[in-house]
């Protein structure tokens, strides 16, 4: 029996805005009936229309960050590999991450997926969108983010393996696959939107428990909020150049060997967040 073309899988906790956007984006691509949402915990309910979407509630996730990352990696890998029995391509990512095809490639999803390795995966080049000083006006939440926000970092930490077609398992935080080298796409980009708007980011922190969460989550989330003030954005690298640097340097260990997960760029212009850049107009309105 022929498999369906593709589905998208995510997990979510105390989230509304990005879940709604995730559903609209991937539902528009593959149909709401091919979306799978794992709700983390039974102590809350998403205030989002989930009609026609496959949902389940996952219990007992640990509330310490590293343990939670490992737990979710195992749980979501199991679900993704089960979905492979029905779908040719299983997309898995966080609810604030959106994979797009470079419009300049001229490719649709079917042709773009031909780039996957023989092992059945590919990494999308990560772009961490961050509210810049010149973009302090709150975003219009009903409109696409790209265009309202266009500054950020080509980032090793958000260069992720986002799709599988064969048996593969993600490791903590979904930043790598077990026993697979980093292979970065030439046309898939992963836009990470958690810091695209400071107000949205602060609301998410509060919804998840604010300072009452375990310290590991508080430190991570407040540390990420501090990145909004990063002055590296004031001196951006041309987008094409930043992408070329990322594709060349992220997959390589300091000793020159192939990396199992993306590594920071060695270019002297790189910051802790990545390679500062400005997103070209061709991406505006996609997400």
TrEMBL record:
This is Glycosyl transferase family 2. Residues 251-280 are annotated as: Disordered. It comes from [Roseibacterium] beibuensis.
């Amino acid at each position: 029996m022929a498999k369906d073309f593709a589905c998208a899988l995510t997990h979510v906790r105390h989230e509304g805005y990005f879940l709604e956007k995730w559903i609209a984006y991937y539902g528009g691509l593959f149909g709401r009936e091919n979306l799978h949402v794992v709700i983390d915990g039974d102590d809350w309910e998403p205030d989002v229309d989930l009609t026609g979407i496959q949902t389940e509630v996952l219990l007992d996730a640990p509330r310490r960050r590293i343990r939670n990352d490992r737990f979710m990696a195992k749980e979501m890998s199991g679900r993704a590999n089960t979905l492979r029995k029905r779908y040719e391509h299983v997309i898995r990512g966080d609810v604030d991450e959106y994979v797009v095809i470079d419009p300049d490639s001229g490719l649709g999803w079917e042709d773009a997926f031909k780039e996957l390795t023989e092992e059945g995966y590919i990494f999308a080049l990560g772009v961490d969108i961050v509210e810049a000083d010149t973009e302090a006006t709150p975003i219009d939440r009903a409109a696409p983010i790209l265009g309202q926000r266009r500054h950020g970092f080509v980032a090793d930490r958000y260069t992720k393996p986002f799709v599988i077609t064969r048996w593969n398992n993600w490791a903590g935080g979904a930043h790598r696959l077990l026993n697979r080298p980093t292979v970065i796409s030439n046309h898939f980009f992963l836009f990470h939107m958690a810091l695209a708007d400071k107000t949205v980011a602060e609301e998410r922190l509060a919804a998840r428990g604010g300072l009452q969460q375990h310290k590991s989550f508080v430190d991570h989330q407040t540390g990420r909020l501090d990145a909004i003030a990063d002055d590296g954005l004031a001196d951006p690298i041309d987008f094409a150049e930043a992408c070329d640097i990322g594709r060349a340097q992220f997959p390589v260990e300091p000793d020159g060997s192939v990396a199992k997960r993306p590594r920071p760029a060695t270019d002297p212009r790189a910051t802790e967040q990545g390679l500062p850049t400005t997103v070209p107009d061709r991406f505006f309105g996609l997400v």
